[in-house]
Design brief:
homodimer; 343 residues; alpha+beta; 7-stranded mixed β-sheet
């Protein structure tokens, strides 16, 4: 617990609940909600007659570490950023716009209040920088635990209809928006025993992609408007998530290796540094929160989407994911219960 | 960790994420949602143009124990029940009807899958028994942690307008619906060293009130329809919560001791058993999730509400809570950071 605490600042248990709220809430008051924090519930206007909702939890030592093998100290700011990023990404993945959020914080009593303020600053910065300009933090919950745990629930609206996982059709083009492999490469750097002081700027940029991921928030609604037939965000790696999308749609996915190779360039600094193959990060790296979508071949695909393959008929009982026609197994990489997923 | 695990059943890490979902989801499929679990986000219809939202977290050894000093083993079923009860209560407290929920579970790998199934059964039973007949579980999140932590977010709609904490006016009557002190008495029984095998039926009923609280779900909307000027749920004890309501409304609250005494009868079995004063549970016991509301004197107060006092003018700078005109200090009892509250 020593790396949590600094002696200069009071701990959350010393300051007490009202003190924590007084320190945090001004940092979070970014937008006007119908009813913000302070009552039994928050309230949000819903214009389209339907609200979409998604929840994700970040747990210390499971989803982030306060201190990495590389010696790098993880800022609370980055934890706050990621708690927003991964949740607005789920709304984006359905073609929606995030309109509100509630945040539940479970904190050890010895945690410094500065940690909590830095966390709140990261939440506010992510809302601002990612362009979630309609999103208000309308409430939350605060309590004690032995490990830091943050659960964020985001609400949103789909103004061009909901893009589900189940709509991909044979002949559709498969496309991605956002990064592929950067956060995975950054994670490998953080977990390496090579110390952080020796990172160059390109390596550092990959670590930033892991710590402060940037889901392409404008692209979800744009894809919906352009007629995307299916979509999801890539949180557990391209192959694994493609397998899910193909399965939901009862189709096969075929990727073109040449299109995937194009994503390697950005990862080369980490590849050289760690002597690891950068293609594995492209295929299996998670947490960039890019979008994986399918479009009818005749659609005008928004320009930030790169076409990487084609949806094929599924003749057998199981959906297959292929590269250049060769079946790959998307199940390697992550154990689901080690990572998190929306149920 | 030994009291978590039974050797007869696989642990959550043995079964894996899909196995856990397969075991849980059928138990939770109580209602039809626009879009249920399985995609990036769930979806809910919103008829009134506004949604209200509230979140609460339950953490092992903070908000519940798997094993109590009385030797009583806490069922996962009861944890599931309470995770729903305390959240629908927040919606109720605003005069709303719960329409949907998402549940995030953080679980130790060695936890038995039977625990998870029992939890899900408790969630479903609470939705059913408490009368949350319009509420669908539309999604969730599943991941690992070292301590059990459950965060439930509930959405709802206020069909008679939102009843806030800030609307109490001088001359209004103060009334409560639901239990007062039962859950607090039950907690004292659980935490006592007197072993559970010797509980009689009346004592056991108080323990049930703590483990499976029953917020009066029909009463929130009914109070709103009857013109309640302010309302909140009593989660941290009457005095503490009254102090909050009075402060939000910038008024004083004056309770009649005779009206409060009436709530003692139900608590006598525990009072005799533990040799503790039952009035302290009435005044300071939390987690019954009854409603504390104010009504204009001319209102037709719904019959399940018991009038316990009157709203008075606040001449000074601070709101005061009184009993028979004598100022009481609502701040004793709980430390806020030990319990949880909505921010």
């Amino acid at each position: 617990m020593t790396n949590r605490q600094t002696n200069e600042f009071p701990s959350v248990s010393e300051l007490g609940e009202q003190g924590i709220l007084d320190a945090m809430l001004p940092l979070l008051a970014t937008r006007q909600a119908t009813l913000g924090p302070g009552d039994d519930a928050g309230a949000l206007k819903v214009e389209g007659g339907e609200v979409i909702v998604s929840v994700d939890t970040l747990v210390e030592n499971q989803d982030f570490r306060l201190s990495w093998p590389s010696g790098f100290k993880h800022r609370a700011y980055d934890v706050g950023w990621k708690s927003i990023a991964q949740n607005v990404s789920d709304i984006n993945a359905m073609g929606g716009v995030p309109t509100g959020a509630v945040v539940s914080l479970s904190l050890p009593g010895d945690l410094s209040v500065e940690w909590v303020k830095d966390f709140a600053a990261g939440v506010a910065a992510a809302v601002e920088s990612l362009g979630a300009s309609e999103m208000a933090i309308v409430g939350g919950d605060l309590g004690r635990s032995t490990e830091i745990s943050i659960t964020t629930t985001v609400l949103g609206e789909c103004r061009y209809g909901k893009v589900l996982r189940s709509g991909a059709r044979t002949g559709d083009l498969i496309a991605v928006a956002g990064r592929l492999g950067s956060a995975g490469a950054g994670l490998a750097v953080l977990e390496s025993s090579k110390q952080w002081q020796s990172w160059n700027r390109s390596v550092r940029r990959l670590v930033d992609a892991q710590c402060r991921p940037e889901p392409p928030l404008a692209s979800g609604p744009r894809a919906a408007e352009a007629g995307a037939t299916s979509m999801m965000d890539i949180s557990d790696g391209l192959l694994r998530d493609a397998e899910r999308l193909a399965k939901s749609s009862k189709v096969n996915f075929n990727f073109n290796s040449r299109d995937l190779e194009a994503f390697k360039a950005r990862l080369e600094p980490a590849s050289l540094w760690l002597k690891q193959d950068s293609l594995s990060w492209v295929l299996e790296g998670g947490e960039d929160f890019g979008l994986l979508a399918t479009f009818p071949a005749a659609a005008e695909i928004p320009e930030e989407f790169a076409v990487i393959g084609e949806v094929q008929h599924q003749p057998g009982r199981r959906s297959l994911t292929k590269i250049d026609g060769e079946v790959v197994n998307g199940s390697h990489g992550f154990d689901h219960f080690k990572t998190r997923r929306t149920i």
